[in-house]
Amino acid sequence: MSQTATDPLLLAQALMRCRSVTPADGGTQLLLAAELERLGFAVTRLRFGNIDNLFAERGSGGAHLCFAGHTDVVPPGPTEKWRYDPFGGIVEDGILYGRGACDMKGAIAAFIAAAANTRQTNGRISLLITGDEEGDATDGTVKMLDWAKANGKIPDFCVVGEPTSKVQLGDTVKIGRRGSLTARIVITGRQGHSAYPQLADNPIHRLVPALAAMAAHRLDAGTEWFEPSSLQITSVDVGNPASNVIPAEATARLNIRFNDRHNEASLTQWLREILAPFAPQAELAVKCSGEAFLTKPGEATAKLAGAIERETGIAPRLDTGGGTSDARFISRYCPVAEFGLVGVTMHQADECVAVSEIRKLSGIYQAVIESFLK
Ligand SMILES: [Zn+2]
Predict the structure, then answer these.
(1) 72 is catalytic
(2) 52, 103, 133, 357: which one is catalytic?
(3) Of 37, 68, 169, 174, which is the most exposed, with the fewest CB atoms less than 10 Å away?
């Protein structure tokens, strides 16, 4: 058996030495394919657009557990801010440094080592690995799921290896995520001299009270699993250099992070309604980067939480906070939860994780596999 695959540290280091800043693959998927094939997985490599993806599966019949993850990473930023080469996979004092250490090459390595160390007698284990999570996410998980659906490979449950732990490994599992919607509002008035307002129509005087009404509105009070939805005005732009000119146009942008009480359609409708009394002709452009979703706690989440608690002694909190992830796509097909390393340093300079944590995560993933496939 390959030593790299059974030792999560060696595999994590090998992955981190590949420069896979989205959309580059940097050799990560070829490396994974070779290791997975050695472990008895059937690997299908799928390229969509300029993105490399792979699906690997082992076993047949029975329960089907999938691990989903991404090999791409965000750029390192200025390298002088790093203590070590962001693509060096260097270990110092038991800490592994480099881009992707916690988000999420470390977790991929931990899951593969868990599969390598599991005697699989029942069921199916699969991995859905994309190279497009940190980018547009259009040629990755979305297309992989279409392919999986067409080929009868949708799992019974999916664990996404995002770094969900907050302070201690095992403290948090994400069972849903809020949705995110951005909107741009343009109000057109009539330009004029500020001394003769009766001859003009000031769009700022329409925009400001409309924004005030939006900001003052309480979208909801939260739910059992979600925080209250929140609207933040992110920009108000007029760009008027003159002090005696009423401008012709005023623009604002806002972002709404919303729970499962709302969706793109309902929020768009609400924005139109709240704008109407102030500026019935306002232009409203909405972009929803992900709807809210929730995997209702049940048997599968209990198995995941139980495995974490057995391995760490911590009963994880089921949470829905934070930004969006590819789990939003997977949730359209099957129940999904996210669980991985402590994410404090993700996307930062000196991203790092303790080697002991990668090994502990591998042990947890092994317990998860065993509880699903027994
Ligand atoms: Zn990630």
Answers:
(1) yes
(2) 133
(3) 37
